[in-house]
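Q: Could you write out the predicted structure for this multi-component system? I'm mainly interested in how the pieces pack against one another.
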Amino acid sequence: MDLTPRSNSEETIVPKRKRNWFAIAVIVIALVGGGVIVSQFLTSAIDYYCNVDEVGSRDGCEGDRRMRVQGIVEQYSVKELNGSTTFSMTFNMKNLNVVYQGDPGGVFQECIPVVAHGRLVNGKFESDRIEVKHSNQYVEKNETRMDRANSEAAACSVQKD
Amino acid sequence: MQLDKTSPSGTGTPATRTLGVLVIASLIALSLFGLVFSAEDVVQGSTVRIMYVHVPSIWVAYMAFAFTAISSAVYLTAKNRSLGWDRFAGASAEIGVLFVAISLVTGSLWGRLTWGTYWVWDARLTSTAFLFITYIGYLAVRRLGGTHRQRARRSGVLALLAVLEIPLVHFSVRVWRSLHQEASVADKGTDVELDGLMLFSLFFGLVAFTLLFVWLVIHRQRTLWLEDAYADKGLDAAIVARREEAGV
């Protein structure tokens, strides 16, 4: 405990101090430089996925290495057979066939963007994890749209709105 | 208990009690709008209702940390260096940490139902977790010991640095490819992508949570004032004891 005699802590007179602008400038430069370095690092390391059209061409998205691929589940492409789910993902006019063992979960459905984790094997993407990437559109479920949903998947109708 | 003439006798005043009633009423109304009046989302179903807590929580956290930085800047630059600003900074940071935690938990639950997983290490989630940890560190620094002014100085500098993370968190979904969706309202101008009552409920949530933040920060600041006054009282007693030992 500090036993230095004091008057009232709120009224203590603080002696004027000369600010060290050089040190402040160095700190600011270090922060900006650090930010640039972190930004560069994150840009190459933390981009969560490759898009379908980048598979085989972009750095980190080529060969048989493990990767995350993002694309939109093509309408009418989802098939379930013997416990596995197959579908086609599309992005920028490119398609990728995906095989996933099990039920993808989340709000997986046609016309919704997904991120598949896995490897490219003989032209097919063998995935062991699917994450559904929800868009930033929020559409109220109502009678009019429910009628339309009878003939179209809900997510596809959102895409077309 | 009143410690001295300058310390408050409690944390409530007629104004804060009125504000408290308003907060309770607005939270009840938010519950009704979020759970009853607003419709389900065509893709997410009822899961969308988590948004009415998740988004206002992170909004309050941003606001709280910005307020912490502003209060710290005022403390560090003002001539009189009133410790009141430091206490506002500390109170606001504590509430900010609470609301980041709420945002992380609700986001995680939403993620499980929508993405199919509780957590991914993408840019938005990682930077938000980093923000949370940073302010936990800030609160720890405030409790390192020393005088009130030492506490105010070192935590003030840290608050000014930590607040720079907020733009990183907010724009992470635009700078990097993230599983988290981009903003539906912020940065959109008039091109908002939420239907009818969903948008109203979301904005109502922002207002209700902002009122809650104001109410909490006022009370917590007053509690910190009492804690400081109590510590000063202990210091006075220690000085008297030391003098008696010395026979002064």
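A: Regarding packing and overall arrangement: Chain B has seven helices and no strands.
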